[in-house]
Design a protein that fits this description.
387 residues, alpha/beta, TIM Barrel, Lyase, Ornithine Decarboxylase, Chain A, domain 1, binds pyridoxal-5'-phosphate
Amino acid sequence: MRGSDPFYRDTWVEVQLDAIEENIKNVRKRLPKQTAIIAVVKANAYGHGAYEVAKTALASGASGLAVAFLDEALALRNDGIRAPILVLGAARPQDAPIAAENAVSLTVFQTDWLTEARQHLGGQKLSVHIKCDTGMGRIGVRSTEELKAVEKLIESETCFSFDGIFTHFATADEIDTALYEKQYSRFREMVESLGTRPPFVHCANSAAALRFDQTPFNAVRLGIVMYGLAPSPEMKAILPFPLKEAFSLHTKVTHVKQIHTGDTVSYGATYTADQDEWIATLPIGYADGWIRKLQGQEVIVGGEKAPIVGRICMDQCMVKLPHAVPVGTEAVLIGRQGEYLVSVDEIAEKLETINYEVTCSISARVPRIFMQKGQKVTKVLNFLLAK
Ligand SMILES: *Cc1c(COP(=O)(O)O)cnc(C)c1O
C-alpha cells in the first residue's frame, strides 16, 4: 500500500534530529559530569515524534526518558525502547502492575495510593520516584511529615523500589528568581529529611538546568531546550548557547487562481479583494492544529511572504500571493525558506501563547518526517496509516 513516502497528502512536519542532538550535547557540556539527563518526550515529544526523539536523545547523552502518562511510556516500550522511563504525572494504582511489568517508574505522593497499588502488585516490584510539591501547586507531598509517611510506606514494602525524588519549578524561566529560590531550598530541606537518599534526586527543567547550578542533585529533566526552543521569551536573551530549532511545518500549493475586486474568500466572506489578486489554496487547516486564530499570519510560499486571507477552514486555508506560482510550490508555515524564517516563537506570539503549545498542537493528522545528516530517515510517523 505504501509508496516511498508513506503519506498521500502534501502537508508534513520535518524534524531535524541533528538539531536535537546538538542541543542536548550543548547542555551536556555545561552540566556536572555525574548529572544524568532525563529527556522529556511527553506529548509525542512536544509534537516532534516520541520514538525518534527518544532514540536521538539517548544517543546524544541522555540516559533516561520521562513522559506524562503511562500509555506514553508503554508506547515507547512497544517500540523497543529499553532505557529507564519515568511517568511524571499521576498514574492509577490499578495500573501499577503493568508499569512494573514494563520496567516503567511511576511518580508517587500519596500513602493511600501506595496501599492500593501494593494490593494490585502482588509479588511484582515497582520503581517509584516521590514527587514534592514545593510551590508548583500541582501534585506532590507538601510537607516533610507527608514525605516521611510516603517514604516509610515505600521502604516497608518489598513491592516498591525507592529510586528517586523530585520537584518541579513554577518560575525557573522568569527573571525574578524569588519563588525559584524558595522552591529550591524547600526541596533541599525535604531531601535532607529523608531516611535514605534514593539513586536519583532531580529538580531542574530546561530553564533551571541552563541557569542554575545543579551540583547538589544528580539528574535534570530536559524538555523544551532539546527541541531548540527557549523556555520563555525572557530567557532568550540569556541563553548560554544558541539553540537550534528542530521543528518545521510544510505544505504544497494545491490551487492558484486570480480573483477580482469584490470577490470574497472563505467562510463568512470576511475577506474581500480590493483589486485583482492571486490566491493560493494550502491543504492545511484547524484540524491539523493550524487554528483559526492564525488568520492574517504570513507564511512563505516560493521564497516570498504571503498572508493568510479569509477564515482558516478545517482542512484548507488560503493565502494572498504577490504573483502566480505553479501548483505544487512548497510553502513553509513554520521554519525557514529562502531568506525568510517563521519561527515557532513568532507563531506563539500571534496565538498569544507559549512555543510549547505550538508544536504540541500540530495534530496527529500531520505526518512527521525525520531528517538526520541532511537525509530523510526512512521511518515516517504517520498516525493515520500506522501499523
Ligand atoms: C514537562 C516537564 C518537564 C520539562 O520541562 P521543560 O520546560 O520543557 O524543560 C520537566 N519536569 C516536569 C515534571 C514536567 O512536567
